Amino acid sequence: MSRDGPVHRDGPTSAVRPRRLVVVAGTATEVGKTWVACALSRALRARGLSVAARKPTQSFLPGDPTTDADELATATGEDPLRVCPAHRRYEVPRAPPMAAAALGRDPIRLAELVDETTASWPDHAVDVGLVELAGGVRSPLAVDGDGVGMAAALAADLVVVVADPGLGTINSVRMTVGALGGPVPVVVHLNRFDPDDDLHGPNRDWLVERDGLWVTTTIGALADAVGGAGDR
Asked: pTM of the predicted model, to two decimals?
């Protein structure tokens, strides 16, 4: 199948791969992946680009008024159940396959998540499709796969690695980028970056100058990178 061609499923629905498929990953949980994905979606849409977002599976606390998928849907103007279908929402705050097991639901298989995501795109090519993972890239998404496997199976055009800018980020970024393994380009986004912080700047400089990584610290610069206008 061509990466730019339609994906057909049973029935009248057909999906077309986004012109640029971007996986939003993280060095860990709680680094702000959803906030970054939402802010990025709004920034890209403000530039006149069409954006669709997907959260292949998610777990959350029972009673949460909004989930990551709901926030992504608000940012992109989509149906929340298109962003993450009802059967992939698990009301237990654990890694999704562990949450599914705790709820007595069927095991999650990576191939199923990939097929569901691929089939969920609109029937016309959007400019950017964002796929937000759960947890860090080695966090289980399925009983047989993690974020690294998902990014590879989707044949992502770009991976955005969201990281904290403070103490420990060099180690976590190196481990995350190493796990992803290439050859897909990676942009590291230091979320909550404070140019006046005496550690944030040196951490960024180390990652750029010593590790040769593509690093952004503002949503505008990240939108440039994702939209194809940014320079390393």
From this structure: 0.92
